[in-house]
């Protein structure tokens, strides 16, 4: 397969002044897309099958963009010239099926926004670590004096920034759901951190379908572009088989020396993208600790070296970076017990990374909406590090089934406050209470942020 030729049907973009752009979903990306589409002269209509949050309603009203909430008026939507879809809406949704049947192009906000900027992009995807790596990469580029924005799956929408800002570079965190509706888009620098089972309910429960979606990060890249990937990740290597790569490649590994890319040797990261221009840094100096964060730091470091940033700037930025909220966030130490908020761990692999970085006995709070999880990969770590599991979710049967032979205590709870109090009583001085759910949050919470914030509030009430 030649990655210059995207095998998915490439929709023709709508032209301003003669067409209606319909936006499905009125969250951050949808409202940003409405702002940009209106600015570019399109007739715009926004439709959200759910209830639109007040702040987004107010933003649409300020723009005088017509919208509907709690319904889809099919007649109006199916007359669109082009549809910009929220990443959260699956291809199986009835309205999407009808649009596809009519041949109406359905694209992501990222695809739409890129048409209207000449800025270069660093696009970061992966099942785990993409938020942290995106933030670290942005931190390094900003510290180096680049005129850079941060968007995608994080922060303010890409489309809104294209409408309102004039950045030379963007660091974009890109999910598989976004990639599914990106066609002509091209990353100047693409980063694929890893591929592990996640969101398989959206991909017919087939890992190869999900992996193929992740590989779209390299579509349309040329010999002038860069592709950065983990040479230790088996699923990434498998997904790359048979693909004719156009971009320059920069692998990274913690197990073997890499000639052009990054590797770990004697607890020191080595990054080399050009002959005689090596960057080295001891992992003890990194702000981000833990094996998974060595990978994240390597990926960001390669981006910086590809852009020929100064070693001093890279080193300083990697040493003083502060990580994202809800990702292995230290909340408090109470009665000698550490409380860690890792609510952003919405899949099994993220929880594996969290447990792998723990150096004490753990009381693990986990559970929520199970996305087809395979808990087998956690069993060894749970057996060796976890003294009790506190389930936080409406249906905890699969967690009980998976770990009943590995821990003595598994308790069911149905609120962050209850889970926190029980975990506190199960822990003793020197232990860690770790919220790392391995599941989505929508059964009991608005989102992972709400879950993390409720946990932090409950810890402070102890």
TrEMBL record:
It catalyses: UDP-N-acetyl-alpha-D-muramoyl-L-alanine + D-glutamate + ATP = UDP-N-acetyl-alpha-D-muramoyl-L-alanyl-D-glutamate + ADP + phosphate + H(+). Its EC number is 6.3.2.9. Pathway: Cell wall biogenesis; peptidoglycan biosynthesis. GO terms for molecular function: UDP-N-acetylmuramoylalanine-D-glutamate ligase activity. The keyword Glycosyltransferase does not apply. Residues 326-439 form the Mur ligase C-terminal domain. Keywords: ATP-binding, Cell cycle, Cell division, Cell shape, Cell wall biogenesis/degradation, Cytoplasm, Ligase, Nucleotide-binding, Peptidoglycan synthesis. ATP binds at residues 126-132. Pfam families: Mur_ligase_C, Mur_ligase_M, MurD-like_N. Residues 124-303 form the Mur ligase central domain. It is found in: Cytoplasm. Belongs to the MurCDEF family. Cell wall formation. Catalyzes the addition of glutamate to the nucleotide precursor UDP-N-acetylmuramoyl-L-alanine (UMA). This is UDP-N-acetylmuramoylalanine--D-glutamate ligase. The lineage of its organism: Bacteria, Pseudomonadati, Bacteroidota, Sphingobacteriia, Sphingobacteriales.
């Amino acid at each position: 397969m030649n990655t210059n030729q995207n095998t998915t049907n490439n929709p023709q973009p709508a032209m301003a002044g003669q067409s209606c752009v319909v936006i499905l979903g009125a969250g951050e990306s949808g409202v940003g897309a409405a702002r940009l589409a209106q600015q570019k002269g399109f007739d715009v209509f926004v439709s959200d099958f759910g209830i639109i949050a007040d702040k987004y309603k107010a933003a649409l009203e300020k723009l005088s963009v017509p919208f509907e909430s709690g319904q889809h008026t099919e007649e109006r939507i199916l007359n669109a010239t082009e549809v910009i879809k929220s990443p959260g809406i699956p291809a199986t949704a009835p309205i999407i099926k009808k649009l596809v049947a009519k041949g109406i192009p359905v694209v992501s906000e990222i695809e739409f926004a890129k048409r209207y900027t000449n800025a270069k992009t660093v696009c970061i995807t992966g099942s785990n670590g993409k938020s942290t790596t995106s933030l670290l990469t942005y931190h390094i580029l900003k510290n180096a004096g680049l005129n850079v924005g941060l968007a995608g799956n994080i922060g303010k929408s890409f489309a809104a920034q294209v409408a309102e800002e004039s950045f030379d570079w963007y660091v974009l965190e890109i999910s598989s759901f976004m990639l599914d509706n990106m066609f002509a888009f091209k990353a100047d620098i693409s980063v694929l951190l890893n591929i592990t089972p996640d969101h398989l309910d959206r991909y017919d429960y087939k890992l190869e379908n999900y992996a193929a979606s992740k590989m779209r990060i390299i579509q349309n890249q040329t010999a002038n572009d860069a592709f950065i990937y983990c040479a230790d990740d088996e699923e990434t290597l498998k997904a790359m088989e048979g693909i004719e790569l156009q971009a320059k490649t920069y692998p990274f590994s913690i197990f073997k020396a890499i000639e052009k890319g990054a590797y770990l040797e004697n607890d020191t990261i080595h990054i080399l993208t050009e002959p005689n221009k090596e960057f080295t840094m001891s992992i003890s100096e990194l702000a981000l600790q833990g094996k998974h964060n060595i990978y994240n730091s390597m990926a960001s470091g390669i981006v910086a070296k590809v852009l020929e940033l100064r070693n001093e700037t890279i080193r300083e930025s990697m040493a003083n970076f502060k990580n994202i909220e809800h990702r292995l966030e230290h909340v408090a130490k109470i009665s000698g017990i550490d409380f860690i908020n890792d609510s952003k761990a919405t899949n099994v692999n993220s929880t594996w990374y969290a447990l792998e970085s723990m150096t004490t006995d753990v009381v693990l709070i986990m559970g929520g909406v199970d996305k087809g999880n395979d808990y087998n990969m956690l069993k060894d770590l749970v057996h060796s590090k976890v003294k009790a599991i506190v389930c936080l979710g409406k249906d905890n049967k699969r967690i009980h089934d998976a770990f009943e032979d590995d821990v003595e205590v598994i308790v069911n709870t149905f609120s962050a406050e209850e889970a926190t109090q029980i975990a506190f009583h199960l822990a003793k001085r020197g232990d860690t209470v770790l919220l790392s759910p391995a599941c989505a949050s929508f059964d009991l919470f608005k989102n992972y942020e709400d879950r993390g914030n409720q946990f932090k509030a409950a810890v402070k009430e102890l």
